[in-house]
Design goal:
Blueprint (H helix, E strand, L loop, with lengths): L7 H11 L16 E4 L2 E5 L12 H14 L7 H5 L2 H14 L3 E5 L2 H12 L4 E6 L4 H9 L3 E5 L4 H10 L4 E7 L11 H10 L2 E6 L25 E6 L9 E5 L1 H10 L1 H4 L6 H16 L2 H19 L11 E7 L1 H13 L2 E2 L2 E2 L9 E6 L6 H17 L5
Parallel strand pairs: 2-11, 4-5, 4-6, 6-7, 7-8
Antiparallel strand pairs: 1-2, 3-9, 8-9, 10-13, 12-13
Helix pairs in contact: 2-11, 4-11, 5-6, 12-14, 13-14
Length: 393
């Protein structure tokens, strides 16, 4: 009996395979860390978003264990029914204080948070303005909101200003990544805040790759920013630098209250396991007590960029933990990644549709858990792999 789609799925999979775009999974048989066990081998891990090395930190593990002992594993219900437990409340209060907002709300994931924020704030009378390189969850949230969806060229504030100026929408929302996850560059926050103030627009910031990385103490993109605004709705994840799982939306109290009433991904999802809230509090406490992991990460970023310069490995401009090496061709990116794996380095090849056609790359993710000699050796291994890999067509 044939498949109901008459072979469409099989043809699509074969096309992806023929273009070197088929995605596969590898089983990691160890905790996240600077070194991981993959398919029976120990590899230096430059693929993880665990930027501060907290995913397997004893303090987070202990906090999660205590929460399991006190509250069990599952929350059992959505937050508005009976799934809102004490660790959730404490995590929201601690996170709001950590990033400097009056209120915060805990979501199941960063993807769910951005969908919830945009669909709650926007409707058919709204226009959402989005950076061309925004993460998929911001794009999907804009589309699901039924608002007019207007994209502007990457980081082009003049283009955004013109689009805001001519907009006739009763509600305007500017949505942007703060650190762009495949390029490692950053949104110009001062200019964005000024534009949103001038044009009476909300500013939705996705700081998934900035929290724990940006700011003098790792408190995210807004730490030290002079131009604060009640128009900002801030989202940051727990599953990257903070070592756990879930996400927060933060903002003015009425914004968070509105999300509680209207964000469908919050209302209709089972609450996170209480241990996730407890792990979040533990991560926040670690960073409040000691900024050493943040400083160490910055040292590793500087060492890697210096070593790549010495080895003539071209990097994209980034001061963040995301350090992309642009390759261009998808198959060549796979070849370079395979050669690095042969030398003991796990570095992912990023291909379309995650990045545009012709912009495949190696995405190096640095962590405070990496030793400096390993970071420098990766740069030399990259130079060797790039030299030996299949040349561009």
């Amino acid at each position: 009996m044939g498949a109901p789609d008459d072979g469409r799925l099989a043809r699509g999979l074969e096309e992806a395979r023929s273009r070197s775009l088929l995605r596969t999974r590898r089983v990691v048989a160890s905790p996240q860390g600077a070194r991981v066990q993959v398919e029976g081998r120990e590899l230096l891990n430059f693929s993880s978003n665990d930027y501060l090395g907290l995913a397997n930190h004893p303090a987070l593990r202990d906090a999660a264990k205590r929460a399991i002992d006190a509250y069990g594993v599952g929350a059992g219900a959505s937050p508005l029914v009976s799934g809102y437990l004490e660790p959730h409340r404490e995590a929201e209060e601690r996170f709001a204080a950590f990033v400097g907002f009056p209120s915060a709300l805990l979501f199941p994931s960063g993807y769910a948070a951005n969908l919830g924020i945009l669909t709650a704030l926007a409707d058919r009378s709204t226009e959402i303005f989005a950076d061309k390189l925004n993460h998929a969850c911001l794009n999907d949230g804009a589309l699901l909101s039924r608002a007019t969806f207007t994209r502007y060229p990457h980081l082009d504030m003049a283009a955004l200003e013109e689009r805001l100026r001519v907009s006739q929408a009763s509600t305007r929302i500017v949505a942007t990544d703060t650190v762009f996850s495949m390029d490692g560059d950053e949104a110009p926050l001062e200019a964005l805040v000024d534009l949103c103030e001038t044009h009476h627009a909300w500013l939705v910031l996705d700081d998934a790759h900035g929290i724990g990385v940006l700011g003098p103490r790792g408190r995210g993109c807004l730490e030290g920013l002079v131009a604060r605004s009640p128009r900002i709705v801030y989202m940051a994840t727990l599953g990257k630098a903070l070592g756990g799982y879930g996400a927060f939306a933060a903002g003015a109290p009425e914004v968070v209250d509105w999300l509680v009433q209207r964000a469908r991904t919050y209302i209709y999802s089972t609450a996170l396991p209480p241990m996730a809230g407890a792990a979040a509090v533990a991560a926040i406490e670690l960073l409040e007590a000691d900024a050493t992991p943040v400083d160490t990460l910055r040292d590793r970023i500087a060492a890697f960029r210096s070593a790549c310069e010495a080895a003539h490995v071209p990097l994209m401009p980034s001061r963040t933990a995301v350090q992309p090496v642009l390759v261009g061709d998808a198959q060549r990116a796979l070849d370079v990644a395979a050669r690095l794996r042969d030398e003991g380095f796990l570095v992912p090849a990023i291909r379309p549709p995650t990045v545009p056609e012709g912009a495949s790359r190696l995405r190096v993710s640095l962590s405070a858990a990496h030793a400096e000699p390993d970071v420098r050796e990766l740069a030399r291994a990259l130079a060797r792999a790039l030299a030996r890999a299949k040349p561009l067509a």
